[in-house]
From TrEMBL, chain A:
Residues 23-183 form the Lipid/polyisoprenoid-binding YceI-like domain. PANTHER family: PROTEIN YCEI. The lineage of its organism: Bacteria, Pseudomonadati, Bacteroidota, Flavobacteriia, Flavobacteriales. This is Lipid/polyisoprenoid-binding YceI-like domain-containing protein. It holds the Pfam family YceI. It comes from the Bacteria. InterPro entries: Lipid/polyisoprenoid-bd_YceI, TTHA0802/YceI-like_sf.
UniProtKB/TrEMBL annotation, chain B:
The keyword Signal applies. Residues 40-280 form the DUF5777 domain. It comes from Flavobacterium reichenbachii. It comes from the Bacteria. This is DUF5777 domain-containing protein. Keywords: Signal. Pfam families: DUF5777.
Length: 184, 280
């Protein structure tokens, strides 16, 4: 028991050392993701998550973001429950992740006006991983950089079933907006 | 030496995969408040209440029917000629407190209830515990029949504890100890205080269908009543939950359901019914 505790402590220590060891990483734990899946004239199907984690390795442009599905807040509690239980199955697939590389990123040349970059990577939602190429806007912020943008995903690409009964009420393409203020 | 082996391997692994390493470092920073949600689809299992509560400011409208006994066959079209109705509303005052009011055809009953959550199931605590307190007002009783009738005689009280656990995303169970007190009763036949212990569960057949079963053992009932045994099917369609029910206890009020089960499954004497919930 004691041994495994020491092991765990050592692991934690090493993770801490390896992640904070270099000052090259910019991090946020309060990133923002909104999605919009409404159809005109039907009930509003949208939600927001304000505690998204994201990390950027400045020297290489490696980027990763992680969001807990249960952290998405809807206007109605019932919709939130159904989102978790029937669509995203968040007890089985608790998070969605994006990991990739922003090409040609040189943080020292970033200014206050945002500039477009290309992020190539893997998007994982509902336990299913797809390669994606996203346009990201990067600008300078106090003590770090701001990364934002939007993209669209199709629920069916990630095996998220939408029953016929509500087919008309949910958009074929869900618009996802993100905003991360990454700091040292 | 051995105790450093694991960390060293991990250290090497983290160096090897830089993007994964980035993702993993995020994992360790996330704190998850992991309450079990959607233990049950509806506020009721079959007729018993579940530990599900309306969210704050949510309003549930409920219509329920229990038809007459199926035993009569075509005479009453399997009981459909003798419908009893419950009309009611439930309002979530906060996430942990809800109030309800309903009117029942059977005994012209008004039922008021309060549900309050005491604990939630999460990584540290194994069960949801919800209290349920009910007061029934029987407006069927008439002065002609009971000359000494006062308002207090119309009252029946129920106190329940609802204890549930979600075992998997498909399987949930609930235990329900109950205490019923009647102000008006026949001392030759029945007790004014009745204890019962019930239990039930649900199994999700598909994402939007679940099969429910519940049984209550009443320790103080007179012999001519049975213990309620009910089976139901939940059908969820977005903003509605529809529950189809077969039961041997026709009453939809908490007190009547627990103490006055008149049907007998063994003799084909049971009741068909449904609960329909609409959420606003």
């Amino acid at each position: 028991m004691k041994k495994s505790f020491i092991n765990l402590f050592a692991v934690l220590l090493i993770i801490t050392v390896t992640t904070n060891g270099s000052a090259q990483k910019l991090i946020t734990k309060t990133g923002n993701i909104k999605f919009q899946a409404s159809m005109p004239t039907y009930e509003d199907v949208s939600a927001e998550n304000k505690s998204v984690s994201a990390i950027l390795e400045q020297s290489t442009g490696d980027f990763a973001a992680l969001v807990l599905i249960k952290g998405f807040r809807f206007k109605t509690a019932l919709m939130e429950e159904h989102f978790n239980e029937n669509y995203m199955e968040s007890e089985k697939f608790s998070k969605a992740t994006l990991k990739g590389k922003i090409s040609d990123l040189d943080v020292s040349k970033i200014t206050n006006t945002s500039k477009n970059f290309t992020l190539k990577g893997d998007l994982t939602i509902h336990g299913k991983t797809k390669p994606v190429t996203l346009l990201v806007k990067v600008s300078k912020a106090a003590n770090g950089v701001n990364i934002n943008g939007s993209f669209e995903v199709k629920p069916e690409d990630f095996d998220i079933e939408i029953p016929n009964l509500v087919r008309k009420k949910i958009a074929d393409k869900v618009k996802i907006e993100y905003n991360f203020s990454l700091i040292k | 030496m051995k105790k450093f082996l694991v960390p060293i391997c991990l250290f090497l692994a983290t160096i090897a995969y830089s993007q994964d390493d980035l993702l993993n470092s995020l994992d360790s920073t996330q704190v998850e408040q992991n309450y079990s949600t959607a233990t049950f689809k509806a506020l009721q299992l079959v007729t018993l209440q579940t530990t599900k509560m309306p969210a704050k400011k949510e309003f549930y409208f409920v219509v329920s029917h229990r038809f007459g006994t199926v035993k009569d066959g075509f005479d009453s079209f399997f009981g459909l000629d003798n419908a009893t109705t419950k009309l009611g509303g439930i309002y979530g005052v906060t996430d942990w407190l809800s109030v309800s009011l309903s009117r029942h055809t059977l005994n012209k009953m008004y039922e008021t209830g309060v549900k309050y959550r005491m604990t939630r199931q999460d990584d540290h605590f194994p069960v949801d515990i919800v209290g349920h307190t009910v007061a029934d007002i029987n407006t069927f009783l008439e002065k002609e029949q009971y000359p000494g009738l006062e308002f207090k005689h119309r009252m029946t009280y129920v106190q329940q504890l609802l204890i549930s656990r979600k075992f998997s995303d498909k399987l949930s169970f609930e235990l329900v100890p109950s205490f019923v007190h009647r102000n008006l009763y026949n001392p030759d036949l029945e007790n004014d205080n009745q204890f019962s212990f019930g239990g039930g569960g649900r199994y999700k057949i598909t994402k939007r269908l679940s099969l429910n079963l519940e049984y209550v053992h009443n320790f103080d009932k007179p012999d001519f009543y049975k213990n309620p045994l009910s089976v139901g099917l939940d059908v969820e369609t977005g903003g509605h939950v529809f529950q189809l029910i077969f039961t041997n206890s026709q009453s939809m009020s908490e007190s009547g359901y627990l103490t006055n089960a008149s049907g007998d499954w063994g003799k084909g004497d049971f009741f068909f019914g449904f609960n329909l919930y609409r959420v606003f």
